[in-house]
Amino acid sequence: MRHRITARTRLVNAPTSDVDLLAPDAIADPHAIFAALREMGPIVWLTRHRAWMFTTHEAVRLGFHDQRLSSDRLTPLEGRLDDASRAAMGQTFDLLRGWMVFHDEPEHARLREPLRRTFTPSRVTDLRPRIEEIVDELLDDLADIDEPDLVRDFAFPLPAIVIAELLGIPAEDRDDFKHWSDQLAAIVFGSANRTAGIERAAAGSAKFVDYFTGLVDRYTSEPTNNLISALIAVTSDDPDAGLAPTELVGALTLLLFGGHETTTNLISNSMHSLLQHPAQQRLLRSRPEQLSGALEELHRFDGSTKLMVRIVGEAHERDGIALEAGQTVFLGVLGANRDPVVFEDPNDLHLDRSNARSHLGYGYGGHFCLGAAIARLETEVAVGRLIDRFPKLALLDDAPVKWGEVLLGRGPTALAVSTSPWRPASKVSN
Question: Is the Cβ–Cβ distance between 259 and 159 less than 8 Å?
């Protein structure tokens, strides 16, 4: 059902913009678009997207915390589809309903708890030696490639290998789940072509369901030291705290999807920013002890999330504007992270920024990203070792950066670089 703007909605002449967030200029430089929207006010109506955009850090932070804004964007999406599309997407919706990120409390907490109990801080900490080993192997390979692509040859394989090993997915299947994830991303992140997105998502979700159902059956009979076995054990030990079979498959897909898609973009964006700011890169190389804080600034400066979607579950007023039940809300994370009210000189990259960790790239409150710890660890090892091994790393001038044409996320599709000269792994210090 579509919701039109009424006189009541325009309580104090709410600012309106016809910007298209999927237009080429918005894809190439969303920061300029988000800044312009922020200057219009904390809440702006986007006519092309039929959605409210929350533009400031405060508005987005409060939006994450407001229970009147629902995370269930599947139900409205399903309601807008015609009968044929809804039927084609049936299995996709069943799969995505196992994703905790599409639920409100208390259902969100119920779906999150088994993952929290298995995806523990100690499990993440124990991953560091293996992550370092994978990074060094990828960097060795990178040195031997004539025309390396940081996305294809480094930023994608690292988190893909890590999450696959965590889940117990055979290495030879990684290329398959990359393809399926790309298909599902058309719906999860929002693509410009809805019809093609529906077809791709349906194909990808069918593959995921078949694949993970088989793995669950396998690890139920032969449990081992991986997350799938741990999640199965949680359900076996306490059925009330566990996940139903369809929910388990959905949760595993979320872990796989989120475990590599967003981290790939975070690593890629971080390196793109450093390559555009060589002085900051040299500073970081000379002060490796500041790497952890620097990564928070890189996330703030150009993170992997442009916006997150909410649905108005309860009509209410905020900032003098009436929001009607059923309307769509975009929480503009990208713009919030460059809000000058919170971050001084927000369009400048300062790797020693004292409040960089105030960014909202991982969400906020109850929906704070469960995988933030592993994303931080992978990005820290990846970026630190990459800039140390390749001190003259640079973008190729004749290979312009192209960005993924999606609404919610942000990441380059390729980063062609020059890597010479380089240092062998034995000289890398930590």
Answer: yes
